[in-house]
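Message: I would value a second opinion on how I read folds in token form. Give me a protein, with the fold worked out from its sequence. Write it directly below this note and I will take it from there.
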Amino acid sequence: MAVLRGCQETRIDWHYVAPGKPMQNGFIESFNGSFRDELLNETLFSTLAEVREQIGAWKEDHNRHSPHSSLGNLRPQEFAMKSRLETKAA
């Protein structure tokens, strides 16, 4: 209810993904697949602290060091640098 209330207050449209229709939100489905394949299926966790540590390390690597197909197979920092250079050149 808090999410719906927040959406109303900020005038953000809320769209439900219909059951059995995951491609209505392909971006999160892609992320979930990467997260599952690269971390969850490969790691056995012993403690909650270990889960937090491993997820934090994966997130850091995924957000800063791994190339992303949506960014032309560039790393996020490379993409940001390229975008800044293109903006300055324009």
Remarks:
- The chain is about 60% helix and 0% strand.
- The helical segments are 2-10, 26-40, 48-64, 76-89.
